[in-house]
Amino acid sequence: MTTREDGYFLYHSIGQYPGKEADLAAAMADFGTIWCASDDRQWPYLLGKRAEFIDLWRRLLGAPDGSATTCENVTQGVHMFLTALPDNYLRGRKVLVAADCFPSNHFLLTRLQDRLGFELVTVKMRQGSGWVADEDMIAEWDGDVALALLTWVSSTTSHRIDLEALVAHGRAMGSLIGVDITQAAGLLPFSVQEPQVDFAVSTSLKWMCGTPGAGVFHVRPDLIPECRPELRGWFSQDNPFNWDIEAFDYAPDIRRFDNGTPAILPAAATVPALTWHANADTDAILAHNRRLSDILIGGVDKLGLKLLTPRTEKERGGSLMIALSSTEEAGKVLNDLRDVGISADTRGATLRLSPGVQTTEDATREVLEVLGRSLGTAG
After folding, report:
1. First CA to last CA across the chain, in angstroms?
2. Domains of the chain and any CATH numbers
C-alpha cells in the first residue's frame, strides 16, 4: 500500500505534522538515555517534561496556573470530576448530555448514575438530523440539571455547538458545565474563560498531533477547593514527600486531582507536538482546512452525495462526513483511496475526511476523482 503525506485526511483520528517522526524519535531517545542512566537525573527530567506538557496545554486553553493537570483520556477526566464533587451534589438531580456525545462518555455516565444517584438525561436527535440541536439541549436544560457535559464538536458529524449560548443558559439554570473539546482542540480557537466553563477535557490526539494516553484536565480555580477526589495518593498533596500517613491533606490547586506516581511517558512523547503547535501559524492552518473543506463540499455536491456535516463554518469543526449508500460501498471507496495512497476512514456507511496541515489541494481534488470513479459517477 502506498502512503503519502499530502494525502492524509485522518486528523479526526491521529494528527500529523512535518517532522513529527523525527521529533518523536529524538524525544524517546532522550527519554531512554536518561531513564537508563546509572545516576539520579531521572525524576527531575521526567517531572520537568510533565510540567512542560501541562504548561503548553494550559497556555493553549487560556487556563490559569494551577488549574490543569494530566489524565489518561477524556473518559477518565470526566470520572475524576464527577466523583470529586461535594457529597450528594448530584444525588436526586439531573446530568445532561447530548446523544451525539463521544460514546465512551455516555457509557461512563450510564454507570455512574447508579452510584452517584443522578438521573441521566440524554437529549435525542430530531428525526432525520445527524446531531442534537442546541435549542433541544436548552429545552431539556432546566433548574434540576446539576451538571451538563457538552461536546464542542461531534465526532460523528463534525457539528459544532454554540458554546456561548449553551453556557449562558447553563449559568442561568445554576448548573455546572463541562466540555469535551477533543475533536477541535488545536484547530479552532478555544478558551476555558471565554465563555467560562467549570471543567474541560481533551486528548492530545487529532489536531494536536500528540500521542495516546496524553489527556489534559482543567477545573475552574475557585471550584477546585470544593472538590475532594476519591482517587488520591502521594501526588495529591501539596508536598508529595509527606510520609505521615495520618496527616494527608489535599493540595490547594489542581494537583489534588493527581494520585499515585503519574504516567509521564505519554506527556514526554507529546511535548514535541505541543511545542510545534505553539510555534505554528494556527490561523493559517485553520484557513487551509477551510479552503480544502470548501473544495470537498463543492465536489460532494457535484457527485450528488449527501453531506452529513453542517455547511456553515461556524457550525462545524474541521472534518467532513459524507453519507454513502452502504457499508460495503464505503469499504470499496476506502480501498480505492488507499490504492493511491490517500488515508481516510469510515464509520459504517459514512466516509470521514479531515484535511490538515500536510494535506494538499491536489490531493483533495484527487479524493473527489477517486470517489467519482469508485461510485461510477465520474464526469
Report:
1. 27
2. 5-17+280-375 (3.90.1150.10), 23-278 (3.40.640.10)
